[in-house]
Amino acid sequence: MFNPEFIYKFLAVPQLAQIQQELDQFYDSHKDNHVFNKKNAHGATIVELSQAPGEIPNSLGKWMGFTFVHADIDSTMKLLPTLQLYFDSMAVGPIERIALVNTHPHSVQAPHVDQGIQYLALNFPLHGCNDTHTQFFKQKGELTTVISMDEVRPGVKEQRKFLRYMEENPEEIGRYVLTAPVLLNIKLPHSVVNSGDSQRVGISFRFKTDPWALTK
What is the pLDDT of residues 161-216, one digit of tens each? Predict the structure, then answer.
């Protein structure tokens, strides 16, 4: 079932309207929450979303200022019961990571491949996705480990480690607009382009075992 040439596929998800309503409620109730540093299972520092509203001790600032934020799996999935039923019905899981991915207005994400052993991610739209697109590039350049230190507010920087795709004239091989659930190959170089005036926010699910059966 492994297919490294797979790019992306929109999925026909049952009860999508109910799932999207739950996701919208999650976004509306958490969009002003703060984030904090946390050590993951591998000892690396990650930025995680607070489940409680308002400022928290040792807060780094509000979620919307950061580009890649982790969400607690158990707490988040309790708020998404219909999505959990879909995962169960498709024998998808357990979940390895839930990430909240923000792309600022009028910006272009650096082409990159995602860290970790997973090849596949399942993404859903949360906010401001219409005037954006995700583009994929043919893997013919060099991957370089980069640690970015982007200032998200005075005195606070977001540190992110990622594999940047180094190619002077990358060859695009596909693109989509995140308006529905999409399964994508995160080991192909990709980039999000936000041409709109709003923050583009998506939620990304990674699984301990890649769901290659969904690519058929």
Answer: 555 666 677 889 999 999 999 999 999 989 999 999 999 999 999 999 999 999 99
- In order, the DSSP letters of 59-110 are --EEGGG-SEEE--HHHHHHT-HHHHHHHHHTT---EEEEEEEEE-TTEEPP
190 touches 123 (CB < 8 A): no
Q: Is 131 exposed, middle or buried (0-12, 13-18, 19+ CB in 10 A)?
A: middle
CATH no. of 8-215 = 2.60.120
Please choose, from the candidates 86, 93, 100, 188, the residue with its C-alpha nearest in 3D space to the C-alpha of residue 137: 188
Domain edges within the chain: 8-215
pTM for the model stands at: 0.89
